Amino acid sequence: MSTAPDLDEPVHLVPYDPVWEVRGRALVEQLTAGFGEPGPYIEVEHIGSTSVPGLDAKPVLDVQIGCAAGDVDAVVGYVRGLGFEHLGEAGVPGREYLRRRSEQPANVHVVVLRGRLWTDNLLFRDHLRAHPEAAVRYARAKRAAARAAGRLLAYSDHKAATVAELMAEARASRA
Predict the structure, then answer these.
(1) Are 56 and 49 in contact (CB under 8 A)?
(2) Using N-to-C axis directions, what is the helix angle for 152-174 and 116-130, rounded to 10°?
């Protein structure tokens, strides 16, 4: 397992690329193939900024795998076998974080299916997809954070307030 400095890579945002949807779907299919038919115990979803049409993003796909808590280690082992580096929780309790920086760069987040992290990630993604004005606000915050920070940990800190505001809006609109 790695420590936080290992996470602190340079941040480079680019305009939305429609190929991300295709590559995200392909990665979801690749990951899903190792589990057989998706069912009530494992689900795989493309999340993050590359999953939101029109949103500027780091050109790194984010995919989450939801599974039973008792299956997390096996899922992490499977993803590691596909060439992903395991970085442990990486500052997010309840999430196992893996990344690949060769081929199409990607992050995989292994979380408990239907748990808080699973639900929040989908809620945030779906809110940005359904509310273009929210996606524009998030894009502005991302660009400002990238200019101010330049590295992942500071970038995440700089945009945290906007993420919290958008999550509150998403939860309120769901209620």
Answers:
(1) yes
(2) 80
Q: What is the pLDDT of residues 78-107, one digit of tens each?
A: 999 999 999 999 999 999 999 999 889 999
Phi, psi dihedrals of residue 20, rounded to the nearest 5°: -60, -35
H-assigned helices in the chain: 4-7, 19-33, 72-81, 116-130, 132-148, 152-174
Residue 38 has pLDDT above 70, yes or no: no
d(Cα 131, Cα 95) in Å, to the nearest integer? Answer: 27
d(CA 52, CA 27): 16
Alpha carbon distance 109, 63 (integer Å): 6
| Helix (H/G/I), strand (E/B), else coil: 9 | coil
- Residue that the structure tokens 């945290």 belong to: 160
- By residue count, the chain amounts to 175
Q: Exposed (0-12), middle (13-18) or buried (19+): which is 135, by Cβ within 10 Å?
A: buried
Sign of the Cα torsion 33, 34, 36, 42 reads negative
Among 171, 147, 173, 174, CA closest to 159:
147
Coil, strand or helix at 56: coil
